[in-house]
Amino acid sequence: MGSTSDKIAGKANEVAGKVKKSVGEATGNDELRAKGAVQEAKGKVQSTVGKAKDAVKGAVDRM
């Protein structure tokens, strides 16, 4: 997956996770809240991977 794809997928997972977490909190559904928190964390990692790929590519391009 390219850096842009990683960043887009990451942001999508972050948003979906936040929604799940909020719905879980509002309804008292601890399982949904936990799944949302995990998905949000996964999204943050994906976004970070995309940013790291950009940094590596930039460093290689400057060589």
TrEMBL record:
Position of the signal peptide: none
Pfam families in alphabetical order: CsbD
Annotated segments matching region Disordered: 1-63
Biased composition (Basic and acidic residues): 51-63
Domain CsbD-like: start-end pairs: 6-57
InterPro entries: CsbD (IPR008462), YjbJ_sf (IPR036629)
Family recorded in the similarity comment: Belongs to the UPF0337 (CsbD) family.
Name of this protein: CsbD-like domain-containing protein
Organism classification: Bacteria, Pseudomonadati, Pseudomonadota, Alphaproteobacteria, Hyphomicrobiales
